[in-house]
Amino acid sequence: MILAVLFANTDGNILIERFHGVPAEERLHWRSFLVKLGTENLKGAKNEELFVASHKSVYIVYTILGDVCIYVVGKDEYDELALAEVIFAITSAVKDVCKSPLTERHFLDRYGKVCLCLDEIVWKGYLENTDKDRVGRLIKLRPPVEP
């Protein structure tokens, strides 16, 4: 199960968060842990360079895309390889939606579309769509085209 997907700026402020199956009392711990992990390791990192960590029997894959840090947390069948696929789908969709060098401002200007993308990619803790063209059609609220 994908336990969490978080977007934060480089200062550590959470921009978007989605938790699945994580009790409310543990969410603050995860927020602070992930932001601390990112501030320690993502300084000087290249765009879309993947980092992997493990904490309390869960896997964490995170990256930076412009001014936005992206964290994906999973357990069980969502190991670091599966989470790398999830984060690749998310970064591809976000780049398509924002269309310009990603800054926090561009990200927040397109907040609604980014949330729709995230909801189409990860649904109730499971990876649903990885094809960026399909996600692009779904966020326009058009019916999917079957091949």
What are the SSEs and their pairings?
Layout: E1 2-9, E2 14-19, H1 24-41, E3 51-55, E4 58-65, E5 68-74, H2 80-98, H3 104-109, H4 111-121, E6 122-123, E7 126-127, H5 132-139
Antiparallel strand pairs: 1-2, 1-5, 3-4, 4-5, 6-7
Structure, explained:
With 147 residues, the protein is α+β, with helices and mostly antiparallel strands. The chain has five helices and seven strands; from the N terminus they run ββαβββαααββα. The protein has helices spanning 24-41, 80-98, 104-109, 111-121, 132-139, and strands spanning 2-9, 14-19, 51-55, 58-65, 68-74, 122-123, 126-127. A five-stranded antiparallel beta sheet has the order 2-1-5-4-3, sandwiched between helices. Strands 6-7 form a two-stranded antiparallel ribbon. α2 (80-98) packs antiparallel against α4 and α4 (111-121) crosses α5 (132-139). The protein is globular, with a radius of gyration of 14 Å. It starts with a strand and ends in an 8-residue tail after the last helix. The mean pLDDT is 88.
